[in-house]
Each structure stands twice: as C-alpha cells, then as structure tokens.
Design a protein that fits this description.
Layout lengths: L6 H7 L1 H32 L5 H42 L6 H13 L2 H29 L4 H29 L5 H14 L1 H5 L2 H28 L2 H17 L4 H6 L2 H43 L8 H6 L1 H9 L5
Helix pairs in contact: 1-12, 2-3, 2-12, 3-4, 3-6, 3-12, 5-6, 5-7, 5-14, 6-7, 6-12, 9-12
Length: 334
C-alpha cells in the first residue's frame, strides 16, 4: 500500500478519541484522589482508633477502583476500539472520514455488536500473545541466574509493551477483515506477526525511545509539581506516616514500610505515584496513538500483501496452548 496520508494527518484526525479519553481519565483522577483522601480524612477525624485514617484511605481507594473499572468496561472500550478502527481505515484506504468519531463508533458496533463479543475477541488476542510473553519472561529468569527475578521483571515490562501494540494491531486487522468472523480474523492477525515478527520488532526502538523520553519529560515535570503540592499537606502526610510506622511495628520488618514511615520519603513516594499515574494517562492518551499509527501502518502493509491462509493457523498451536481451546470453541467460525 502506497499511502499518501502522513502519520501526522491521521493522528490529528483521530485526536477526537484521545480528547474524549483524556476527559474520562480526568474523572478517574478526581475519583481516585477524592475518594482516597476523603476516606482518610473522614475516618481519621471521626473514628477514634489507631490506623483508622489508613484504613479509610484503603476503603476509599477500593471504592474508586470499582467505579473506574465499571466506567472502563462499559465506555472506554468504544473510544479505544473506535480510534484503532479509524486508523486502520486511514492506512488501508488512504483516506480519512469526515467525522472520525461517528465512523469509529459505527465500525465498533458493526464489527462486534455487543460488549460481550468485543471482549471475547480481545480476550483471545491477549490470551495468545500474553502466553508467548510469559514463556519469554521465564526464559529470561532462568538465564538471569541469581538476578533472574530482576531480569524477568525487565523482560516482562518490555514484553508487555510489545504485546500491547501487537494486540492493537491485531484488533486493527479484525476491523479490516470485516467479512470474516472475528475469531478467524484474530487468527490471521496473530499469524501475521509470527510470519513477519522481525519486521514489526524493528518498530520497537522507536516505541521505547519515545516512551522513555515522555517518561523523563512528562513524568519528571509532574513529579516536581506533585512534590510541591504534597509539601502543602505536610501535617496530614506526617499523620499517615506515623500510622504506617505503628502498623509496621506490629508486623514483620519490611523495607517498604520503613521507607513509607518517614514523612519525607512518603512525600516523595506520593509524588512519584501521582506523577506515574498522570504520565501513563498522557502517554497512553496522546503519545501512544501517534506511535501506533506508524506501527499499525507497517503491520497492515505486511498483512495485506500476504493474508494468512487457514492452513497456517497451526503455527499458533506451537506458540499458544490456549489456542487449541479457542480453536475448539470457535471451530464453526474458521
């Protein structure tokens, strides 16, 4: 495919999805901070018991996570899948829709119809690739010797990043092959990776380079901002640090608990966590879609030139034990 559309032009067109995702993410942050802080303040003030503030903070955090999970499950999938559908359409047809949002929503509805069908398809995609990632991680741990745990963790982060992009590319292929069943298209998308793995992995240098740059730039800037904000709540942080110290004294010695029992280090930890949350939102919302346009373009170029045949699906059985189960469950769709 010789596309005339630049990656930048496609990215600007699908920014409407990123902006919607960003606003939802702001709601997430407000809920997370509000309910967690609210739980700490209410229990610390009205419940006369040691460690009550810490307990209240935990309860507030759990409630926030439940609400966030519900919103993500029922609403965010449309934004993510719709954006991938429009990017796929742009790189394969070399044209952009007038209304990207409506086109993306229509594509998701046409392809999957229900939330259940969408999650069934994406579950199979993730199942195949994550199983491969676990195998590679275990190999790294074995090779790492005494430092195997660290080596395995580093490899796991790298593999998870690669898998995230592969899942998005495979989902794009499912949209492209709209006349085939979602399961068959998923199999074709996975086989395409195994046939052209070296070509796709060349994109990973750019993926990790941009990711590291955004982590240092965006994450570092927000760490400074949140650290200065946290200093304004030194009294509350000191109270929380003392509760952690008392809790740590009752249990087994822990380096993490010792670290967090100091108001200074607890302030740093809070700033780091909040900065990472904001970075992950900004990176995932605005940076990753730009990188994905280029990765998905390369993926579709290779896939369209050589669409996998059903006879090639055996390669998936070599890499994924779960595929045999999926194959039996969806035998009528092949």
């Amino acid at each position: 495919m010789n596309s005339k559309l630049s990656n930048g032009a496609i990215y600007r067109k699908v920014l409407t999805f990123s902006l919607r995702r960003f606003w939802v993410s702001l709601i997430y942050i407000a809920m997370l901070v509000g309910l967690t802080a609210g739980g700490f303040i209410i229990t610390d003030k009205y419940i006369n018991m040691k460690g009550s503030g810490l307990i209240g903070m935990g309860v507030g955090l759990v409630i926030a996570c439940v609400f966030i999970a519900i919103i993500s499950h029922f609403f965010m999938y449309v934004i993510k899948a719709g954006q991938i559908a429009v990017i796929t359409k742009a790189v394969t047809e070399d044209k952009l829709p007038e209304n990207a949002w409506q086109t993306g929503k229509a594509a998701v509805k046409e392809r999957f119809g229900t939330i259940a069908l969408y999650y069934a398809a994406t579950g199979i995609i993730k199942g195949i690739f994550h199983e491969l990632g676990k195998v590679i991680t275990k190999v790294g741990e074995a090779v790492g010797g005494d430092a195997g745990g660290t080596v395995g963790s580093v490899i796991s982060i790298v593999i998870d990043t690669i898998i995230s992009y592969l899942c998005d590319c495979c989902l794009g292929w499912v949209f492209y092959r709209k006349d085939e069943s979602a399961f068959k298209a998923t199999c074709e998308g996975a086989v395409t990776f195994f046939k052209n793995g070296k070509t796709f992995l060349k994109n990973m240098g750019r993926v990790f380079g941009i990711g590291l740059a955004s982590l240092i730039g965006i994450g570092g800037a927000f760490f400074g901002i949140f650290y200065l904000i946290a200093l304004q709540f030194s009294a509350s942080i000191t109270t929380l640090a003392n509760e952690i110290k008392e809790l740590a004294a009752k249990g087994e010695p822990s380096k993490v608990m010792d670290f967090l029992s100091s108001p200074t280090t607890l302030t740093i930890a809070i700033a780091i966590v909040l900065a990472l949350i904001v970075w992950s939102i900004i990176h995932g919302t605005f940076i990753k879609p730009f990188v994905l346009v280029g990765v998905l373009r390369n993926y579709m170029d290779s896939a369209v030139q050589s669409i996998p045949d059903s006879s090639e699906f055996d390669i998936l059985e070599k890499h994924s034990k779960k595929f045999k189960k999926y194959k039996k469950q969806h035998a009528n769709e092949l």
